[in-house]
TrEMBL record:
Domain of life, per lineage: Bacteria
Predominant place of localization: membrane
PANTHER family according to UniProt: CYTOCHROME C OXIDASE ASSEMBLY PROTEIN COX11, MITOCHONDRIAL-RELATED, CYTOCHROME C OXIDASE ASSEMBLY PROTEIN COX11-RELATED
Claim: Ribosomal protein is one of the keywords in the record: no
Cell compartments where the protein resides: Cell inner membrane
Ranges annotated as spanning the membrane: 26-45
Upper classification of the organism: Bacteria, Pseudomonadati, Pseudomonadota, Alphaproteobacteria, Hyphomicrobiales
Keyword Cell membrane: yes
Protein known as: Cytochrome c oxidase assembly protein CtaG
Keywords of this entry: Cell inner membrane, Cell membrane, Copper, Membrane, Signal-anchor, Transmembrane, Transmembrane helix
Species the sequence originates in: Peteryoungia desertarenae
Record topological domains on the Cytoplasmic side: 1-21
Length: 210
């Protein structure tokens, strides 16, 4: 086929109304898909919170208002872990790395977060406890998880956690031998600081093209 014929075929295809409609449909579908992914990312933290509360998975802890009235003469080691999403410009760490309270004793430990960027940034933390079986006996009186937090440029904030390990942990065959528990938090961006995935969209003859 000669060059002139190829050019003529390409021109006819670009002017074909059916092809234009097809391209438009594909472009709209792709944009809708990207938008749905962004929406799912925005809802990830609330959905995780609801999932853990309903199923009890992920080492879900208990939130309580009343302190334990019983303190056993047995200690348990609790280690604190800190993580931050790569899309959140924060430094986040545990000030108190490890404590060994008596079971039933109320303890306060602290984390600290610092905004390392030059703009205000919002973050929100999720958590888990390992081993998972211990989660039901890890009672938090005060906690910063699932709370949207805004840090100004360079600002640091201490975040306390007040907790106790329920003495009932020694009455369960599956948990009575647990001697070590890890409480882990991970911060993710929230609100306008959510990462947004996008695809470049251009127009050809007034029609959106990817």
């Amino acid at each position: 086929m000669r060059v002139e014929e190829v050019s003529a075929v390409s021109t006819n295809l670009s002017q074909d109304p059916a092809l234009k409609r097809s391209n438009t449909t594909v472009a709209i579908a792709c944009v809708a898909f990207v938008g749905s992914m962004v929406g799912m990312a925005y809802a990830a933290v609330p959905l995780y919170q609801l999932f853990c509360q309903v199923t009890g998975l992920g080492g879900t802890t208990q939130r309580v208002e009343q302190l334990s009235e019983v303190v056993l003469d047995r200690t348990i080691n609790v280690t604190f872990d800190a993580n931050v999403s790569s899309s959140l410009p924060w430094d986040f760490k545990a000030i108190d790395k490890k404590v060994s309270p008596k079971i039933g004793e109320t303890v306060e430990i602290r984390y600290v977060a610092t905004n390392t960027s030059d703009r205000p940034v919002k973050g929100e933390a999720i958590f888990n406890v390992t081993p998972f079986e211990a989660g039901a006996y890890f009672n938090k009186v005060q906690c910063f998880c699932f709370t949207e937090t805004t840090l100004q440029p360079g600002e640091s904030m201490e975040m306390p956690v007040v907790f106790f390990v329920d003495p009932a942990i020694v009455d369960n065959e599956d948990t009575k031998t647990i001697n070590n528990i890890t409480l882990s938090y991970t911060f993710f961006p929230r609100g306008d600081d959510q990462p947004v995935a996008s695809l470049p969209v251009r127009e050809v003859d007034g029609q959106p093209q990817l």
